[in-house]
Each structure stands twice: as C-alpha cells, then as structure tokens.
Specification:
By secondary structure, the chain is an alpha/beta fold. The chain has helices at 27-39, 59-62, 67-74, 84-94, 121-124, 131-142, 178-195, 217-227, 295-307, 326-342; strands at residues 6-9, 23-26, 41-45, 98-104, 145-151, 201-205, 232-236, 248-251, 273-277, 310-316, 350-351, 360-365, 368-373, 380-383, 390-395, 404-407, 410-414, 425-431. Strands 7-6-5-4-3-10-9-8 form an 8-stranded parallel beta sheet, with helices on both faces. The protein starts with 5 loop residues before the first strand and ends in a 6-residue tail after the last strand. The model is unreliable at 1-22 (pLDDT under 50). The protein binds ligand FHN. The site of ligand FHN has 7 residues, from loops.
C-alpha cells in the first residue's frame, strides 16, 4: 500500500484549460483512473431476487410488495444454472474490460455472503453459493476487472430512516437509526473490499433517494480508499463530482446530454467519464421487454461515448436461473466481432478534436485521429482543423489511402462509398504534432 505516496496528478484527459485542474490523488488511483479511461467498454449486470418476477429491478416498489412477501420471494431464489465462467467468457468475447455487478440493489437483498444480515444469498436461499465470489475468481483468471454496484437506498432495512422519495408503506416500523444504517453499509463495504480480491471499485447508486441526508460520504470514501487504494469510486448520484470520487457516470445519456431527465449537464473536465446504458429498456430481467437496440445502434453508442471521452457500460439482466437471454448474448458477440476489427480506434483513445456530430465522432491516440463515419452517404466529409497538419489518411480496414484536402478552414476527406453492412467507416488520420488538450 502506497497511501503515503500522494502525488499532484494532472490527468490531462479533459478539454481546455479547465482540464488542467490539480487534484491530490494517490499514485495508485491516478493509474487506476488512467486504466479506466483506456478501458472504454464495460458490462453492467443487474441480477437479484427481482429477476424471478421478470419485471425489472424496481418490481418491489412498482407493485408495492410488502417486506414480508418479498422476503418469501427471496427465500425461493435458486439460480442453479449460474456459471460465472460462462458469464466471463461472454464478457471476453464481447471485448469488455470490466464488469460492474449489483452486489445489493434497492430491494436491500445482498447477493453476497455477509455477516451484517442474514438477508443474503448464502444464508437466505436454497442456492447457498456466493455468486460474487465465483465471479471475482473467474474475472481474476480472465484479467477482467470487477466493480461492485452498491445501493445506498434500501427498501428493506428498518434503519433506512427517515425514508426517502421512493418510500411506501411496506410493513417496516416507522422508526430507525440512521447511524446504525451507515455503520451497516460501511461494514458491508468492508466485506466487499476485503473478501473479493482487488476490485476495480465501487459503483454507488440511490443517494438521490435522500439527497439532503447526512450520508457522511467522506468517511465511506476514505474507508474504501484505505482498504483498496486503487479502487475507484463511481457515484451515480446525478450530480457534479465531489471530492474523493474518481469517475463521473451518466445514466442512459452521453456526457452532458440529459434526455433521461436526471443527469447533470455539467461534465467534469478532469475525471474519466462513463455512460451506462440498457440494451433494451430494462436493467433487471424483464420478460416482456423485447425492445432491444440493434447492433448498429449499440456500435453507435460505443463510438459516440468514446468520442465524448467516455466508457460505455452496457447492461444485461440475466434470468433468474442464472442464464443470459440469447438477445443479450447475440448483441455482445456482435460487438465483440466489431471490436476485434475496430478496437484500435476505441481502446486507449481519448475524445477526438471534433466533438460527436450527426455523422459520427472522432477519437484520438497520440497523433492519430480516428474519424468514425457512422452515417454519411456522401463522398466528401468536411471537418474543422484537427489540431495539426494532416500527414496521411487511411482506412483502418485494408489501409487504402483516403484522399484529403486541407485548408485553414479544415480538412475534407474523400470517402469510399459505405459497404452495405458496414457499421462504421473508420479513417485513421495521422497529423503533425497535435496540440494537446
Ligand atoms: O434506480 C436505479 C436503477 O434501478 C438502475 O440500477 C440504474 C442503473 O444506472 N440506476 C438507478 C437509477 O438512477
């Protein structure tokens, strides 16, 4: 542990002078943030007791299920076909670099062995196995980083009191001890950060239920960073980043956009960014939701996320028996095929000099600007200046030269016609020394 080794870090992954803000961050976390910004693609997994009802992870709230009844449901959870190695094999085929899985969602059920409550998958269900342990072992063997989603909101714990915006009368006593609840959470986080090997980090969610409560985040964040100095804290609180947080994440929106209605439009200039996205319209398994995005749309999200300097955290909701529906598998396999051919224009890139446009996006690594043409039927594509004189332009596939013209107003590329099944025409443009941003 190098906790004493505090460095003044300048990540330099943001835009303009604002990106040059200094942040006192230990070297381990500086490296971890850089790793995260390079990773570009993660797999989100929402899986829990709720999967059994096939109506998403909010089913307890949406159907106003009483705690007693939900406890009975939990006692029948038996995902006998869960195979951590199969999940991780799928993740590898898809080309993801990390997995973020729900360790405890808003229903308050712990999907891991915990001494803090019997309401956990090992002690409460016939399954009796710890899927997070099995997953962490499989991830470590495969070189995939594991992050734990952890809900601060709890619809089951009596000490989650006073209750927040999502409360309903579900049979809990109208009293509770907030200090005890915070101690419970910190004790569970200690278990997660102690018993599952080195983690990528903790992905928090649910604070928005009680935005004005005294969450004592400083204490919790310090605990996490003391237990694992390289663990990243990713808060999905939909607000501007606070001290101690490592990544700014956006839900169902690219950074700065707010079509979902709860994201902040303020984008951090110096933290790595992430966008979480459902593959259909649900996070947890939803048996009637067949509104799956096409592979073309998903490639578009991945490219536009990278063009915004963000990772894409793409969700699956496994079935209650532990298997993964073919719709998820097919799309992840197709993304893996696409990344096998185009990953050099995605992984370890940063946002390019041209912000995402209707036609596509740009990414950059060193002096190479990758122009991702997603939707442009015409032969000429005019770009603003790329930050340095263009030395060459070639198709990523096959390396054929792409003719270009450069003036003080910018660069015009002469594109070959799009192939009939092509998802993204990538042109690698090498420039003379790009002005670093
Ligand atoms: O309420 C949750 C929801 O169930 C899901 O976990 C998503 C994932 O980003 N986050 C919350 C809403 O902000």
């Amino acid at each position: 542990m190098r906790s004493a080794a505090v460095v003044w870090a300048m990540l330099g992954i943001g835009v303009g002078a604002a990106a040059q803000s200094r942040d006192s961050v230990p070297a381990e976390r500086v490296a971890a943030r850089r790793w995260f910004a390079d990773a570009k693609f993660g797999m989100f997994i929402h899986w829990g007791v709720y999967s059994q009802l096939g109506a998403g992870e909010w089913v307890m709230h949406n159907r106003k299920i009483a705690v007693r009844d939900y406890e009975s449901l939990a006692a029948t959870f038996d995902p006998t076909r869960f195979d951590a190695r199969a999940w991780v094999a799928l993740a590898r085929r898809a080309g993801v670099r990390y997995i973020t899985i729900t360790s405890r969602h808003h229903d308050g059920f712990s999907m891991f062995k915990t001494a803090q409550t019997p309401y956990n998958i090992v002690d409460w269900t016939p399954f009796k196995r710890d899927p997070l342990k099995e997953l962490s072992d499989a991830c470590q063997a495969a070189g995939i980083k594991l992050f734990f989603y952890y809900s601060q909101l709890d619809w089951h714990h009596p000490d989650y009191w006073p209750r927040g915006a999502t409360a309903w009368d579900n049979g809990r006593p109208d009293a509770g001890d907030w200090n005890r609840y915070l101690a419970f959470m910190n004790a569970q986080l200690t278990e997660l950060l102690t018993n599952y090997g080195p983690l990528g980090g903790i992905w928090f969610d649910g604070m928005w239920d009680k935005p004005d409560a005294d969450w004592r985040l400083d204490t919790t964040y310090a605990l996490i960073h003391r237990l694992q100095p390289a663990a990243l804290i990713i808060p999905n609180h939909h607000q501007q980043p606070r001290p101690g947080e490592d990544v700014q994440t956006f839900e169902q929106d690219l950074p700065g956009a707010n079509t979902a209605g709860f994201n902040t439009s303020v984008v951090s200039a110096d933290l790595p960014l992430e966008t979480s996205l459902t593959m259909n319209d649900s996070w947890g398994f939803n048996i009637t939701d067949k509104d799956f995005k096409s592979v073309r749309a998903l490639v578009g999200y991945l490219v536009r996320a990278a063009g915004n300097g963000a990772n894409l955290l793409l969700n699956i909701g496994p079935r209650p028996d532990g298997t993964i529906s073919p719709e998820f598998v097919a799309r992840l396999d197709s993304l893996g095929d696409w990344l096998a051919a185009n990953g050099s224009a995605i992984y370890a890139t940063r946002r390019g000099p041209v912000p995402p446009r209707a036609w596509g996006a740009t990414t950059r690594r060193g002096d190479t600007v990758f122009v991702h043409v997603l939707d442009w039927p015409d032969p000429l594509l005019a770009l603003p200046p790329l930050g340095g004189p263009v030395r060459s332009a070639r198709l990523l596939h096959g390396g054929a030269a792409v003719r270009f013209q450069e003036t003080s107003a910018g660069v015009t590329l002469e594109l070959p016609p799009p192939g009939p099944t092509e998802l993204d025409r990538v042109v690698a443009v090498v420039t003379g020394s790009v002005a670093r941003r």
